[in-house]
């Protein structure tokens, strides 16, 4: 300011920062046009794009995003789902169920041969065999066979004892154990006893599922079970880690991606038109802004320790955009009008 009068720069600044500024609106329009009309590869190059992405994926910003936004957002989504009572069917357009079923039935399907050997069969057998043994022995112990002329008590006792013995010794080796043992016992007991045993087996199967679940839970929670589960997981993950990515992608390439893309587009368009979806988006945007209330981009980047990287990466594309704006004939006309307005 000179002699109590605003300088030319102050006059221009006042014009551009006024609440209702035609000059500012005109400049924004010029800048947007320059952004739209400049080839993308002139604003950013491949190296800059990769650096921006790695900057976003660095540990510090990822931890911050998870803590401030992702985890709270998950909790908010759960609460909204609880209040709205939405179902998965609400998320897909009418008729999409048939398309999903057709995609599931599509042939050919991935063979997943790269998963062969991922589960160590011997370890799984060690984990499961005691559960099967306990369940089958429980069945044998519940068998109550009438002893008559056709089935001497000694024969019945020997048969049941034989079943229990075979179960105990061979359950880990014989996948067809029940069938094999059953045939042997039936030969000794006769047709009537076979019928009775089959009926008992049906009755037992109605409660065996719960018993097996409880036995399996106890097994995996036992010291030996936990050790086996850990070893199974370790070998499974080690197998996956050694699988070439190309093998997985080649296997998945048989999927009908064109149809999947169309279905995805339909589902996204359907949700974009739902009031509940738009309300959820707005609520999340408000929550994110509230979490960042009063913070500048500089402060956030300083918090994550990335301000120096930003100051290195931001100027080159900003300079190219500014140059495109200044090269526009519309900018020259706008600048002349701005100077004339400030002189009035």
Chain-wise SSE layout:
Blueprint: H1 8-17, H2 22-37, H3 40-43, H4 46-56, H5 59-84, H6 96-104, H7 121-142, H8 153-170, H9 177-189, H10 191-221, H11 223-241, H12 245-252, H13 257-272, H14 275-291, H15 297-304, H16 307-313, H17 315-326, H18 329-343
Helix pairs in contact: 1-18, 2-17, 2-18, 5-14, 6-13, 7-8, 7-10, 7-11, 8-9, 9-10, 10-11
How would you explain this protein's 3D organization?
The chain has 344 residues and is mostly helical. It folds into 3 domains: 8-57 and 306-343; 67-106 and 256-294, no CATH class; 121-239. 76% of the residues lie in helices and 0% in strands.
Helix content: over 70%
Count of separate DSSP helical elements? 18
End-to-end C-alpha gap = 17 Å
> What number is the mean pLDDT?
85
Low-confidence segments, given as residue ranges, are none
- Largest sheet geometry: none
What order do the helices and strands follow? HHHHHHHHHHHHHHHHHH
Tally of structural domains: 3
Query: Pairing-aware structural class of the strands and helices?
Result: mainly alpha
Content of β-strand: under 5%
Overall shape: it is elongated
User: Rounded to an integer, what's the Rg over CA atoms?
Assistant: 36 Å
Give the beta-strand count: 0
Task: Write a brief structural summary.
76% of the residues lie in helices and 0% in strands.
Keywords:
single chain; 344 residues; mainly alpha; 3 domains; 18 helices
